[in-house]
Amino acid sequence: MKPTYNTKVGNESGGHASRCVLASAVLFLLFVLSMPLQPVYAQSSSGTQVYLAGSENSALNRRMLSLLKEALGSGINIRSFNSGQASQDKTTPVITLGPEAFTRVRQGNRDVPILALLVDQSFIKGYAERSEGSVSGILYNPPLIRQAVAGQEILPHATRVAMLARPETVEIYESLVEKLPAYGLQARVFVVSSDNDLIPTLIHALNYGDFILAAPDSGIYNPRTIKHILLTAYRRNRIVIGPSQAYVKAGSLASTYTPLTEIAKLAANYIEQYRRDGQFPPPAYPDVFRIELNDQVARSLNIPLPDRQEIINSISERLAGSEEASDE
Fold first, then answer.
1. Dihedrals φ, ψ of 265, to 5°?
2. What angle do CA 234, 236, 238 make, to 5 degrees?
3. Segment 98-121, tens digit of pLDDT
4. Which DSSP string do the residues of 51-103 spell out, in sequence order?
5. What are the beta bridge partners of residue 138?
6. Is 153 helix (H, G, I), strand (E, B) or coil?
């Protein structure tokens, strides 16, 4: 007798199983679709990415991008920051180049973490204090105390420093005036009330000081005024220190400055600390610096210039010694 098989039951069982698998797949798909969509930029929360908001100087942007890539290493990807991006991703750190780039990013979203490069202390200080840990900077313009000590290294017998300021920028020099006596220097700020008062006030300052210490105050030192300031100082056998490396080429005798390579290295350290702790350190200057000297101006004024590295070493030792003394 041949065995018989109930094919109808088998078909019904297979169809039931298929329907169960299909239902499970549909339920899983519905579950996935019900989850909130994450923007593409949210992938940056893994800490392997940073954004770079550049300046209007394309050559500078390319140079800093190259240095940052080298300093950050292959483990971190640098992407260009685009307008409106801060509203989509407020967790990935943004490195900005210059005040304008910082302002652009900050206006897009006040919560986005920003590391500002190529800014001075007066610009970033308030932002860093109000957004402690989420906003910081690598300071670019040389600290005035370092500039003043550089001037004394070039003129060892200098005892008095003169400074020019507008009424609204006098505060730039306030903390410096208090520090200088520890280095054997006295200081006085001469206030320029109007454009017409610039040269007469400068003459008073030159009669007082052994040299003029220039801060990055664009109301006083700019392409329109710098020639007149330098010629007036030169005719009275006085030198100008600062305000920056660029002005040394114009006729200022000296200025310390920070190489871009050192800015990139310290920026990489700040990014690493943010990835580790979720906060940036406070704004700071890189420890390493260089000095730009105008040999032609020095020869014209019969000023013998020490070796550049000797000046740097002496400045570093004196500043470090003063800091140690203040800590005791």
1. -65, -45
2. 65
3. 999 999 999 988 999 999 999 998
4. EEE--S-HHHHHHHHHHHHHHH-TTSEEEE--TTGGGT-SSS-EEEESHHHHH
5. 117, 284
6. helix
